[in-house]
């Protein structure tokens, strides 16, 4: 399973390195959203600094949608999905590999966004261990739930519009947990943030487990 | 599942409908006249007799959708597929009613139609989850191989209730830290006529829900039949036309 997962993740990331969609489209989009928030919320009122945790994670959610769509668009061309079914790879491995590739791209987005928030919103970084743990747990949850709902919407003619309405309500616990944990790390007491980090971890584990079990059926039948 | 219905009414549903109507009239009497006004909320408490039952029915409906989706995944029978959609559709109506009545109640009680109360927020998210589920079902219905139809919708349906629970508790936890004392919660320790009226409301709205669900289920079932026979009927009709005009090339 894990060998198949690493093959799958390697393949997706290799396609990414060659096509540079994340690098040339998703990452600039992330910076663009930060600028749009800055314009919408008036930089002089100090809202940006106080809300930077929430804005950071909303931007990550938007970018996650793009990365998930992309992860299944690359399988749509040239009968990629049929090839996946015929490949004999463990479906659980395909799920974990796809999720890992999405997670890797999200980590890149988060690193860039962190720099952007510090520079553009003037956020002071405190409570680094909590920030890192939150990022890891939230990214795992986003990637797992995203891969599961991504394959559900894949191959449909209306997938671009359907995926956000299916996925974003499901991801609200991630947004809540990650935002609260960031707020605790950046402004409040770090100890208040760890339970939220726990929520993120539980969410990630639930979706990783369900996705590992259900992905094979979905890939066969969707 | 039960025998395939050919029409949406039956003696049992007519009885259920009649009982629901009597129940609604009785509830109206209790809610508006025979139960006392609340000491704090005055007359605005009366909307609770509609609001709380619709909320309970809406959440129960989600459970039915999830159950029907799980059963469809096991059995692949048409009945469970139709039931899943029917429960979601009727559920969305009750979720909407719950949000609207809550909003109307919130105006005099909280002074605002919307508050970031955990229950309003999570019920609104429930509404959107149901909208997404129904949108996916529609797409599933229209396109693709019929033998694979419903797989995606069934998985989203299966995850519906767990998601509602996760969202509900995380929103609850999120807002509980901010809960201000000015928000007057519905008094949990009601008794006497008020408690009776609330219980009556729950029973009556469950009956109305059951009545709507049965009818929606039967309409859905007939839709499936019409979809299956529609092509054959059209072919027969076309051939008959071609025969009359002496064969169209």
Which terms summarize this structure?
heterodimer, A: 222 residues, mainly alpha, 9 helices, 86% helix, B: 249 residues, 6 helices, globular
How would you sum up this structure in a few lines?
Chain A has helices at residues 2-19, 21-40, 47-50, 52-76, 80-86, 91-120, 128-153, 159-186, 190-221.
**Unreliable sequence segments of chain B:** 179-184
Q: Greatest interface and its residue counts? A: A-B, 25 and 24 residues
Shape of chain A: globular
Separation of termini of chain A? Answer: 21 Å
Helix content of chain A: over 70%
| Assembly state of the chains shown | heterodimer
Mean pLDDT of chain A: 89
> Would you report the number of β strands of chain B?
0
Secondary-structure-derived class of chain A: mainly alpha
What ranges of chain A have pLDDT less than 50 throughout 5 or more consecutive residues? none
Number of domains of chain A: 1
**Helical amount of chain B:** over 70%
Order of helices and strands of chain B: HHHHHH
Task: Tell me the fraction of residues in β-strands of chain B, as a range.
Answer: under 5%
Cα separation of the termini of chain B: 46 Å
The overall strand count of chain A is: 0
- Radius of gyration of chain B in whole Å, from Cα? 23 Å
What is the 3D shape of chain B? globular
């Amino acid at each position: 399973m894990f060998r198949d997962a690493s093959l799958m993740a390697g393949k997706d990331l290799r396609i990414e390195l060659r096509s540079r969609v994340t690098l040339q489209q998703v990452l600039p989009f992330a910076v663009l959203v930060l600028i749009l928030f800055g314009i919408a919320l008036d930089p002089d009122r100090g809202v940006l600094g106080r809300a930077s945790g929430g804005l950071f994670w909303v931007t990550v959610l938007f970018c996650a949608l793009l990365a998930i769509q992309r992860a299944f668009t690359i399988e749509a061309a040239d009968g990629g999905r049929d090839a996946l079914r015929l490949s004999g790879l463990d479906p659980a491995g395909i799920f974990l590999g796809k999720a890992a590739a999405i997670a890797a791209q999200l980590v890149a987005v988060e690193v860039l966004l962190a720099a952007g928030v510090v520079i553009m919103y003037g956020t002071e970084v405190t409570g680094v261990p909590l920030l890192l743990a939150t990022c890891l747990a939230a990214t795992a949850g986003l990637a797992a739930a995203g891969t599961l709902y991504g394959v559900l919407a894949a191959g449909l003619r209306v997938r671009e519009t359907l995926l956000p309405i299916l996925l974003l309500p499901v991801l609200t616990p991630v947004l809540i947990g990650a935002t609260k944990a960031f707020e605790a790390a950046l402004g409040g007491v770090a100890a208040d943030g760890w339970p939220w980090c726990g929520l993120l971890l539980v969410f990630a584990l639930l979706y990783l487990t369900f996705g590992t079990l259900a992905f094979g059926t979905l890939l066969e039948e969707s | 599942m039960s025998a395939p219905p050919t029409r949406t009414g039956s003696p049992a549903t007519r009885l259920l409908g009649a009982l629901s109507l009597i129940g609604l009239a009785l509830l109206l009497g209790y809610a508006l006249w025979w139960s006392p006004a609340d000491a704090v909320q005055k007359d605005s408490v009366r909307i609770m007799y509609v609001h709380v039952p619709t909320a309970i029915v809406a959440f129960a409906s989600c459970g039915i959708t999830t159950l029907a989706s799980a059963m469809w995944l096991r059995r692949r029978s048409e009945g469970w597929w139709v039931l899943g959609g029917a429960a979601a559709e009727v559920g969305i109506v009750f979720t909407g009613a719950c949000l609207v009545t809550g909003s109307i109640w919130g105006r005099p009680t909280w002074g605002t139609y919307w508050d970031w109360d955990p229950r309003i927020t999570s019920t609104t998210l429930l509404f959107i989850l149901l909208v997404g589920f129904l949108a996916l079902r529609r797409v599933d219905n229209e396109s693709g191989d019929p033998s694979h139809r419903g797989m995606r919708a069934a998985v989203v349906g299966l995850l519906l209730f767990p998601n509602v629970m996760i969202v509900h508790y995380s929103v609850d936890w999120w807002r509980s830290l901010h809960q201000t004392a000015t928000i007057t919660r519905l008094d949990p320790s009601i008794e006497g006529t008020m408690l009776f009226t609330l219980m009556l409301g729950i029973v009556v709205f469950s009956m109305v829900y059951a009545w709507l669900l049965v009818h929606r289920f039967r309409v859905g079932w007939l839709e499936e039949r019409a979809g299956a026979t529609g092509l054959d009927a059209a072919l027969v009709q076309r051939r008959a036309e071609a025969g009359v005009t002496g064969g169209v090339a």
